Amino acid sequence: MLENQGGNGPLIVQSDLCALLDAAHELFEECRAKISVFAELVKSPEYMHTYRITPVSLWNAAALGTDADDITRTLKAYSRFSVPESVIHEINYYCSRYGILTLESGGADGLLNLNSKDRFIIMEICGNQAFADFIHSKKDDYNLLIKARARGEIKRALIKLNYPVRDIAGYVEGAPFDINLRSARASDGEPFELRGYQRDACEAFYRSGGAEGGSGVVVLACGAGKTCVGIGAMSKVGARTLVITTNTVAVRQWMSELRDKTGLREEDIGEYSGDKKQIRPVTVTTYQILMWHRGNDDHYPHFCLLTDGEWGLVIYDEVHLLPAPIFRVTAQIQAKRRLGLTATLVREDRLECDVFSLIGPKIYELPWKSLEKQGHIAKANCYEVRLKMPEAVKYDYAVAKKANKHRICAVNHDKIDVILKIIENHPGEPILIIGQYLDQLGAIAKTLGAPVINGSTPSQEREKLYAEFKSGSLAALVVSKVANFAIDLPDASCAIQVSGAYGSRQEEAQRLGRVLRPKRDGREAHFYTVVTADSVEADFSMHRQLYLTEQGYKYYILDAAEFMSRKRIGCDVKLIQ
After folding, report:
1. Rounded Cα distance, 404 and 108, in Å
2. pTM for the complete prediction?
3. Does domain 196-372 have CATH number 3.40.50.300?
4. Terminal-to-terminal C-alpha distance of the chain
5. What is the tens place of the pLDDT at every residue in 187-206?
6. What fold is seen in the domain 378-576?
7. Cα separation of 96 and 154, whole Å?
């Protein structure tokens, strides 16, 4: 660690807990690696990257063993100017909150022990009626006996008071079941082993099987092999495992990966979906089936699958999508090891704290651009094509209610001409057209003579179309939001987004992820968003792009009229930093 930068460091720490990192500085890479442990990347244009220090980012760091002194020393060592005292105070305050409360095993009759270093905090908890149902009894001034079933809910409630609980109460082992990784893939006989960062992520989760490990979230870009991290974690835990993912196609892709990269037999792997109800040593299901219930009643008949005592590990694929009902039932199964996998922890509902308290802290992350430089994901070029609103719909847009304006401009019929031009610019490349509105997608599919996949497309038909797209027999595929998540289309190199879910940063990141898997021929990926200029759609588009610009991606702005007149895309375009 550097002692002092003498006013020449790459970092500028501001009193609002933001830090600016000079990307041109010789110590940029070194500093970025240090501060990413305790600060969240907010924006990363070419010259100055912005990080924000938050309570959750500090608690994530504390959970991994980094304390306030370590953080302060890092900031002082790399800072160009003096670190504001208010920032040091906030770091000390939030870091000190982690570990004040520790949840341990050892209580009588299966009860858990909640220990505090401060007896006044125990008094505060006992005096708060919201905690009455969680507490069995007061052991002494520093310890409370907690009902085992309340392990999740009390952590969830305490974090809202800025008391993140250090949970070392341990885990039930579940029914043992050995899961061994292959040395060669079953599909093609090619050598297989986990990449270095995938092994590191598994180690960060497992922590040698101790109570400090066993729960947490791994954040890796789409295409970086999060499924392999899950498989690696399964092999370490060596127990019956439940995997929860986003849809039936994703279920079957998980099953295919398990057969390809582990020694599991066909009869060891079960599908629990709308089509099949197989419960086997490794079972893969969907969030939708777990949340299914009849009418307005609040009974979820398939929740029993999640609470089954046989599981030694539960894997939450695309954990950033975790629905509220699954949060509730996850609060009841805190004795099971839990691994969350995601490309982004961004939640538009701001429930990152619930992910922290119920799934676990962020235990491993590798920046998208680092993966790109290492060749583990494809290099991507992002474009926004802006076209004018047709005269025929200007009146309708002007008089429409706010709720209807977005749809009017999003389904702009002139977008079809732009799509055709983009396809012309990428001859021979597999192309995905992604959108929100089914009538719009149907019209595009008819124009292109391409099939369309939406929510009503049977799972068997979806798999058939995805397979044809992968094989190259389908040059273009039109998909609705059902293809946003957990779909493996390795050869897709061009995606055209024609409409989206308002300003969702999460969706933007996932859609780019459809084309990020490395291409066999090494070609780059292209991601286009077609928007109607001077409309609410353009405003939403700016917000959607935020997450990707935070990751270091650049958006090139193309005027539709100029774009249509070009033979090929040039470089004389406006760049969003």
Report:
1. 59
2. 0.82
3. yes
4. 32
5. 999 999 999 999 999 999 99
6. Rossmann fold (3.40.50)
7. 19
